[in-house]
Each structure stands twice: as C-alpha cells, then as structure tokens.
Amino acid sequence: MAGKSNTSATYFAQKKLLGKAHTSNLKTDGEELIGSNIQAAASQIFGQTIPENPAQTLYLLQSASNGAPATVEYIHFALAALTGTTYDANENNPDGGSGSDSGESSQSSGVHTYKFAFRSDYTSNSSNSKKGNGYFNNNKIVHETLGKIQLVPPYFSQTAPNPYIIKIYKDDGNGGIGNEIPLLDNIDWNVDYYNGILFLQDYKSSKIPAHAKAFAYVGDYASEGFFENNLSGSLQRLTDGTSYLVAGSNITIASGSSGQITVSSTGGDTSNSVYSEYVGEANGTNTRFALDHAPTAAKNVSIFVNGLLQMPATSITSAPFQDYSVTGSVIFFTSGSLPDNGSLLFANYSTSESI
Fold it and tell me: pTM of the predicted model, to two decimals?
C-alpha cells in the first residue's frame, strides 16, 4: 500500500475548508464546481440522535433508542463517474513536476472521482417515509441535494469495526455488487460524507468502483424544529422522545393559529385550565381585547408585553375593580398605561371550571 500522498491529503482538506469538493489533483479549489461543507448550518445539522452501532442491513430504518425516531438507513448506492475527472496521475503535475502526485507508478489515464446516487430501485426497497419527496428519489445524485441527503460519517461511532465506514465495490458484470475494494486498498480512496463524492488518488482499470453501501441520515435537521405535532393534534413533544409538555389521558395540549397554547381537560372534569394567547398590540390606556376562551368561572390573568411580565395574575370577579379586568367572560381592558403601538401583548390566564 503506497498510502495517500501529501498533495492528495492536503488538497482534500484544503478544499473542504474552502467549501469545495476535491475531485482532481489537477484542479485548484477555484476550479472545483461541486460544493462541500463542514455541516454547520441549521438546515444541514442533524437534529436527532444517531445510533452508535446500527446493523448493516440494507434499507433497515434504525433509531438511537427504543421508541425514538428512525434517523439512519443503510443504502445500496450506485457510483457514477464524475465528468471532467479523467486524467493520467503520472502526468501534468499542477506544480510543474513529472506527475500529478500519484502514489502508484505506471498509471494510465482514467476517472478519479465518482458521485453517489440512489439506485433505480430505491423507493421499491425502502420503507423510508421520506422516499419520493424530491430528495430520497430513484436516481437522485447526492451532491445535488445540497445537504438534504448526507452520509453519516464514522465519528458517530467508536464501535470496532466502525459501522459508518463506507464500503465500495466493483460491479459483478451483471449490474450487481462484485468484489469489495477495501478502505486501505492501494488506489487510496476518500469519501466526502457531506456530498457523496468518492475520490481515487490512483486509477487502476481492474478496480473501477460501481457500488457503495453507506448509512444516510433520514431524520430531521435542526432547522426543522425540535417539536413534533403529534400530541392530541398539538406541538410540544421533543423529537428525542422526551416530553416538554405532557398530554395525559384527560389533558389536551393544543396550539392556535395566532400562537396561543391551550392546556385543557377533557371528558367534563373540573380542572384548572391554563391559556396563553396573543391578543394584539398594546395601544395605550383603556385598550380592550377579546380572549379566545369563554370561561364559566373567575380566572387569574397575567399580562405580558413583548414576552416580559407586565402585570401578575390576579383573581378577577368583575370589572372595574382591578387595574385590568374581565367583563362578559371574554373582554378585558386596562385602566393603566401600556406601551405604545407596536408592542406585542400576550395574556396568560387560568380558571377552575368544567370544560
């Protein structure tokens, strides 16, 4: 095994840091057309937990723990030659020398870079709920998804052998998987896990990669939020499976279009129900607002302006005995001064009543 040359290793790392894929030792970073990333943007950061030791079973969706959302899938990818990466590694050294930093001598001209793509049978083999969504599609090229599809890198596991190390294979002559080309093979290959780009330092006609097996991330990204809308039609469950607000057998958590969150009882029980809703913009003194809920008993009201507590909760039975009051069950107004127009006003209120 000759080992990766210093130039190949340097180019790979340098281009990665500059946001480019490394597809050829003959190209400068400015000539690389495919982007890369260190996976820092919220839309490209894994938002759910990755299992440390998943089984390498094709198309099996796997979670980090029992009951947690599936986040990885082991997939059979096709490898296709990347146009413009054919050259003789023994010639045309970009530094003016007698070879383009090949590790093996007596090479002939050949393709040095391959792109990962879903096979034409992916959607028929996979049970991934995202299949067919425009990214997890048959024949879709990974780097063209701009980070929506990413391969899971080995640093997510310390198991030996590491399940996240990608395996590449030759073709068997009939379109199927042939012999494996090992990670330490003397063609000295690297994979960019962000964009699904395979780079070969040394071309060898007897070792043309055509297939790969790799784990792809199938969970949600950080920008998609950390809540799921599956508690009685509401938000509030963290995607790692733990609850931020808990809905019980007779408790419903619901969210409204204007941003309010309602925690209420069901089944006619007498309970303490809590409401939080956006009620408009503060408008000086004697401003009247309507509350969405009409309770049948007295309630405590707290007023928040731009998220800060303006007035604490006080039991209200009739108007106008308090600085703010409730009349007709659903209207309250302020007799004191509130901030000028443009301040967002929220009301939190609770009541003991039969829902």
Answer: 0.59
